[in-house]
């Protein structure tokens, strides 16, 4: 199937890998996926490794992303990192509203929206995470949950800004559990999210926004997911920590 949107495969390393481990990883990764032009590849290391990873990747085309950001540029906000700092470290992407931040660190939809706006103002690309809990899926309110999260995260954006986003649909019950949404279920919710973007910003933005699936993606289940018409890549946790499995996902998405 020909898609006009370039898929993005992003690795969310969470709180794994020291600077030394991270640099060794990307040195291998660039050999494994170098030259693949039809998929955008992004790694999201912990803050401490961002600058060194960006330096090691140089002009390979593999992008670097952060796992969070704060919305002020500077100030008395102990422990926080601004978009200005991320940009200087070589980041181009920022994961915003990951379910672990929502669950463990009190991230609200309002915070997510502020962060999305700040990141866009600084010319970075947000990877905005949305997704339902298992109880919400079982109660049949998945669409309502992802609609409200998407509407809140994208509030106040222009159609051009919405078009440039990456949205990651990550059912929370599929993250780190080995349970992947079926290709059809992932397509259904992602198609629904594209419809929400269409409703808010029009067909132009909806046709351009890239929407990833995330939740126990592995090389073996990538092809089926990528064949779905609305799925434009993957946000990968566990399987992004190993060069062979992450490169396998990239190659599967590239049709190699
Ligand atoms: C994630 O943390 O965004 C994720 C999708 O994790 P995993 O691939 O391990 O399920």
Q: What would you note in describing this structure?
A:
- With 256 residues, the protein is an alpha/beta fold.
- The chain has a single domain (8-241), classed as Aldolase class I (TIM Barrel), CATH 3.20.20.
- Helix content is 45%, strand content 14%.
- The chain contains twelve helices and eight strands.
- Strands 1-2-3-4-5-6-7-8 form an eight-stranded parallel β-barrel, surrounded by six helices.
- Helix 11 (219-226) links the parallel strand 7 and strand 8.
- The mean pLDDT is 97.
- The site of phosphoenolpyruvate has 13 residues, from strand 8.
Task: Record keyword descriptors for this entry.
256 residues; alpha/beta; TIM Barrel; eight-stranded parallel barrel; binds phosphoenolpyruvate
What is the strand arrangement across the widest sheet?
1-2-3-4-5-6-7-8
The CATH topology is given as TIM Barrel
The dominant shape is: globular
Compute the separation of the termini in Å: 14 Å
Order of helices and strands: EHEHEHEHHEHHHEHHEHEH
| Alpha-carbon Rg, integer | 17 Å
Q: Please name the fourth-level CATH homologous superfamily.
A: Aldolase class I
Per DSSP E runs of 2 or more residues, the count of β-strands stands at 8
Unreliable stretches (pLDDT < 50, length at least 5) are none
Summed over residues and divided by their number, the pLDDT gives a mean of 97
Bin the strand percentage.
5-15%
Named CATH architecture: Alpha-Beta Barrel
Bound compounds: phosphoenolpyruvate
Q: Characterize the biggest β-sheet.
A: 8 strands, parallel, barrel
